[in-house]
Write a structure and sequence with these properties.
Blueprint: H1 2-11, H2 18-25, H3 29-41, E1 45-49, E2 53-58, H4 65-70, E3 81-87, H5 90-99, E4 107-117, E5 123-126, E6 131-138, H6 149-166, E7 171-173, E8 177-180, E9 183-194, E10 199-209, H7 226-230, H8 236-257, H9 264-269, E11 277-280, E12 287-294, E13 300-304, E14 307-311, E15 316-318
Parallel strand pairs: 3-4
Antiparallel strand pairs: 1-2, 4-5, 4-6, 6-10, 7-8, 8-9, 9-10, 11-12, 11-15, 12-13, 13-14
């Protein structure tokens, strides 16, 4: 009831009468009043005027299920939403849900993570009230060797969504870190369960620093937040919705060819590595090169003194941009 009422109040251009709400939802005025009361207690500012009805005035920066579902405009991303005040890891929960049979588009969101994981198994704790910690479940019908490209699609979606909500550039450090003014604002971790020629599921974990005003000393030189870089308090639920909308759009383009050929140009336009000297941390021997964009399969094209090479995995640093976190 809360979700439907919230959606109705947000969709209304003006006051919506209690009688109209009663008839729309088939409930009593008391039920409407109780639902409004619950929303007010959750931080929503709702005006109630006699002979006019109810009107939503402002929305808190909250990530409850009702808020996320009430603003959802996507076709399949977020079709099922699981919200947790505190969780060990959204990726871990998403994998469990996928194994239990939940469909493509299932979304796990947490206010706080206590055992979040980054690349190379690095652990971190995600504080409450300032960030976005979300994981999207996919059950794609293509070969497992295509799955790595989903990480780049997610990076493009986050970059586009942040830019859309702030009006400021959010660049991509290949393959999937999001950078603002040379510091990391978002990390993405994609994990896959697959057979030899079949994908069981893929989970894409996204962590965005939104309202953080400071970071631990060990990462303060390399990490930042949207608030710190733009001075803007971005609504986290609206940013999640924007990410999902962009991901759906890019994913549909990807499915047409099962590669990134339709997205290479746009990805390269957001690539902070583009046409810059980079250091490739090759397991055998690190080397200097010039980044020239990505291939349709997501590899980074680099020019070295020995000629052109393709980097398919590992880390790449850019001069003037943060190191390895």
């Amino acid at each position: 009831m809360r979700t439907q009422l919230l959606a109705a109040l947000k969709e209304a251009d003006d006051y919506i009468s209690g009688q109209e709400l009663c008839e729309h939802f088939g409930v009593s005025r008391t039920a409407i009043w109780k639902a409004v009361k619950q929303l007010k207690e959750a931080g929503y500012v709702i005006e109630a005027v006699q002979n006019k009805g109810y009107k939503i005035v402002s929305t808190p920066d909250c990530l409850n299920t009702a808020e996320l579902e009430s603003i959802r405009k996507t076709k399949w991303a977020g079709r099922e939403i699981f919200y947790f005040d505190t969780i060990d890891s959204t990726n871990t929960k998403a994998k469990q849900l996928a194994e239990e049979g939940h469909p493509t588009g299932t979304l796990v969101v947490a206010e706080k993570q206590e055992a979040g994981r980054g690349r190379r198994g690095r652990g971190f704790e995600s504080p409450a009230g300032v960030g976005i910690f979300m994981t999207l479940v996919l059950k794609p019908d293509f070969a497992p060797d295509r799955a790595s490209m989903l990480t780049l699609i997610a990076a493009l979606a986050v970059s586009k969504a942040i830019s859309e909500k702030t009006g400021q550039e959010a660049e991509i450090k290949w393959p999937n870190d999001i950078v603002m003014n040379g510091k990391k604002v978002c990390g993405i971790l994609t994990e896959m369960s697959a057979q030899l020629d079949y994908i069981n599921h893929v989970v894409i974990g996204i962590g965005i620093n939104v309202q953080n005003e400071s970071f631990p000393k060990e990462i303060e030189q390399v990490a930042t937040s949207i608030l710190m870089e733009t001075g803007q308090h971005v609504n986290r639920a609206e940013l999640i919705e924007a990410v999902l909308e962009q991901f759906e759009r890019y994913y549909e383009i990807f499915l047409e060819t099962e590669d990134l050929s339709g997205l290479v140009k746009e990805y390269n336009a957001h690539l902070i590595n583009m046409q810059k000297q980079v250091r490739v941390l090759d397991p055998k021997e690190p080397y200097e090169a010039k980044a020239m964009g990505i291939t349709p399969h997501g590899e980074l094209i680099v020019d070295t003194w020995e000629g052109r090479k393709l980097v398919s995995s590992g880390e790449v640093s850019v001069r003037g941009v943060y190191g390895y976190v």
